[in-house]
Amino acid sequence: MIKFQTTFVVLLLLFLTSCSLPYSSIKTTTSINPSDDSVLTFHIDPWNENSLLYSTLDGFFTSNDGGRTWDFLSKQPANVPITTLLPHPIQENTWIGYSDNTIFKSTDGANTWFNYSKYLYAHENTFLSSLKKFFYHLFPSLQPKNLVLYDVVISSGGTRKIVCATSDGLYVLTDNNSWNRVESSSKYGEITSLIDFPHFGFFIGLSNNTTLFSVDYETLECISLEHFKSGPILDLMINGENSFLLYSMVGIFQAELLEHQLLKVLIHPVYTEGSVTCWNVDNQKIWLQTEERLLFSDNNGTDWSTLSFPFPGEINQMQFSAKDSSLYILTSSHGILFTKNNVDWETRVYSIQECHITSIQQDSVVSTTLFCSTKHRGVFCSVDRGITWFSTSSGIEHTTIHRLLSIQKPYHALFAATQNDGLYISYNQNYQWSQLNPVFLNMSITAMFPSKYDEQPMLVAAWDSVYEQSLLYYSFNGGLEWFPVIFPSKINAIQDFDNDPLMFWVGTNHGLYMWNAQSLSYEPTVFTNSITLLQKHPKDNQHIYIGTMSGLYETIDHGEHFQFSSCNDQFHLGTIDDLLFLPREPESVFLVSGGCLFRSDDSGITWSRLSQSKDFFFTTIYTDIIEPQALFAGTKSNGILYSFNQGKDWHTASDF
Known about the structure:
4-stranded antiparallel sheet; Methylamine Dehydrogenase, Chain H; disordered N terminus
């Protein structure tokens, strides 16, 4: 009995260790670098010319209008992010999604996914491999996951086989949803690319970045074609009934199948003038991303032109829709861009749930309308109190907006403060943006304050990085004319005195000042910490909360004395990002600091950290004007969150 147990343990260890496979090079040099929005890949739906599907770390989003608006579809299957999407050639709403070692299939338009990876692992056709297969059938959780999946292709003819190119040859999906290794592919080892040739009834495969071979649709027999000697091949793309392109380290080459019976291949160069980092092919059309330019040829590389793409160094993926001659490009930090003529580019925005939110602002005229500013994605709008959002970024599509201000006098307008591009304005909710005044050009807008009374000025604080000086601009006619005042330190926050419309608190990098708009003079207070926000208590004008880079402070006597908030003692706060009082419960206050959310129900005497604040990185918070229990919060990578019980639980759009 002891001998049998020992033998079983030895066999078990042998099974586990013998399946280890080394990791090898990636399929191409075009690596996906997710931006703050965590976008991994996207694909045009071949059954609908206006439909797009894209995969993010948080799930799948779909667009039915060419990318103008996006809706959340489903979460990632089993929390495994899909990095490549492949539509089925004949089955509508059927998608294959895969990453390095997992493959899934959806038959309902990416709403639900079935895991096809269970038996996809390397093995040999030996008695030992049969024992391993039986063992992993009994204990699937112990199955090794180190088989690297490089490419997946679905045959356009024959029995529509799904074939995987892996680090250990080819695998084909059987009728019972298990995988069989193509034994004739074993001699090729690592196979990094596959393309489909329905005209000939076979695939072309790439082995070890140098050897080309064919795979018959029905017999799956593999036959060597050509050994490429001009540097390693990184990818293959078909561009005709009997031709395909090779993407190598030294350029792009054309390969033509001259004789089907003998499978001869003729290879000649198409582009060898520089390093290519990304590409796309549609018949005779070729797009190439080099280190500095986006090139285009509509005659298979005979002639090349440079496209005026605004972000040539940030291209991660290109997709061309032959149905409407549209090109979509996914960039690393400026979203998906779209063109029909290779000249004029439009942004196809992401869902708000994929944005870094910097502020939330209620419209000054229509109380049910909300706006939020974002990093790199401009401004979004909601006309139903924050339930659904759409982009209003025409003119500022790629701009980081860190503050918004809505006014109703002398005109209805929304101001957007940028980091280094001045001040933008949109009138009467027309969702078109223009720079307000040349005086703010190339400046960083650091704070804004609306005119609440006829005799009170509107204020805009700006930092001039050229002269390294802080300027406080004031206007008594709603921004039609601006007058500057030089301030001794960079301004980050502004609040007014309730008893004097011409007196203001000004928070700067070097402390708190009082500024008189009538005499245009300022006076420093004894508070000298770097200030990030100022907020008055809604029921006590003498009580002012001061957010700094080292915690929260308070003054209860209108700036005579200052004290450290008890919240700092409890939680050792850093930079204070936002502060919110509930309108109907002014003793209840929410605080955002370091990505966490805190709450006090006694005007800041005692505090508690909200239970789910560790799950999201909070940046700002806002309360619903109608439903007192509802809150909205902006986050760094989850867009807008919703709470319907005053912050006890938070939900993303994917939860609804």
